[in-house]
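2.7 Reproducibility. Because tokenized structures are sensitive to small changes in the input, we list the exact sequence used for NADPH:quinone reductase-like Zn-dependent oxidoreductase, including any N-terminal residues retained from the expression construct. No trimming or masking was applied before prediction.
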Amino acid sequence: MTTMRAVRLREPGPPGNLELVDLPVPVPEPGWVRVKVGAFGLNRSELHTRLGLAEGVTFPRVPGIECAGTVDLDPDGILAPGQQVAAMMGGMGRTFDGGYAEYTVVPRAQLIPFASKLPWETLGAVPETLQTAYGSLTTGLDLRAGQSLLIRGGTSALGMALTALAKDMGATVLATTRSPGRLDALAAQGVDHPLVDSGTIADAVREVFPDGVDAAVELVGTPTLPDTLAATRVHGTVCFTGMLSNEWIVRDFYPIGYIPTGVRLTGYGGDASDLPAEVLQGYLDKLAAGTVPAGPTTVYALDEVPRAHDDMEHNRVFGKLVVVI
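Resulting structure tokens (single pass, no recycling of outputs):
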């Protein structure tokens, strides 16, 4: 096999700029590994790339900051063919071609081995979402059992993963949605206090926790960050992780006026090295056992990537968008 199917972004612009093309199967150099892609999840950062908002991207480019698959060729003989791996970050889909393809070549350091009998549509939804959720709760928040956690943007794929992990850690979870029709879905995911987000939810949060929550993850972006800070107790922590609003700059930032007295503001952005293999394996094992919920997924074929991007951009679907090869 000398050629493969891939989705390539011709240049920034509308979903139609994502084109299904035939490309040579990439050949890995020493230190790199060729992965046969089983599935990949779609991420907001890839939307930012398509819209021309991401820095350091050259075009044309095969996008995709993550994938799940099997080792096809390791020229150094360190990873055996057929080994299941997750790949993510490290320049994938930005400085070199990423996961929107039948095969991708990545640095070995960006691979996390695992073993699972879960279907590819489930495995493809996990890597980057789990890495970000795990890092936000541990590095970003140092969340502990018995604490309260607010997730601003709870119906996103990352919001769902945060809920699953936080509940497994023993936290009480509050999560928001802009749609009243999705409150039941949040509850079904394990959220203790689903909240409708009208733009300001601090008062509603303090009706449940009068002093404010112990911790919060901001997934919407800078438009809601001040209100999320206002919902957090003194000595509590807010971790800025996502930007579903596509807005991440705080203009004319005056810390004393912006951050409530005594509330801590952190951020999180991780890489493959921030997701230990045992954490990935443990999470997959819990998914297989049904002890943590998988969350809803919408599955597409490779030639449906433009439609999937359009759905993601306009928030038409609930949960993770996954492409199965």
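The mean pLDDT is 96.
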